[in-house]
Amino acid sequence: MYTIKKHDETVGGIPKYVIYKGDKPLMLPCKMTKRQIVQFSTEIEAQKYIANVVALISTGKEYLEIY
Q1: Measured between alpha carbons, how far is 22 from 67 in angstroms, rounded to an integer?
Q2: Where along the chain do its domains lie?
Q3: What is the rounded CA–CA span in Å between residue 26 and residue 19?
Q4: CA distance 14 to 53
Q5: pLDDT bracket for residue 66 (50, 70, 90)
Q6: Tens of pLDDT along 33-57?
Q7: Taking the model in full, what pTM does it have?
Q8: Which of 65, 52, 60, 62 is nearest to 26 (CA)?
Q9: What is the pLDDT of residue 7?
């Protein structure tokens, strides 16, 4: 369902890991900010985010995905 892809682009020499659902990157679910891709500096942080999303969905708590 979700995949983590390492992007070659870096910020301060640190690669970024982006979460994808299918072929589209997830965007931050906030209408108050400019559309921004969900990205992390380590793959472990991205995996924790996915685990939190899955937990929210399975408990029926609100979660909004934007592509």
Answers
A1: 10
A2: 2-59
A3: 6
A4: 24
A5: low
A6: 566 777 888 889 989 988 888 887 7
A7: 0.56
A8: 65
A9: 80
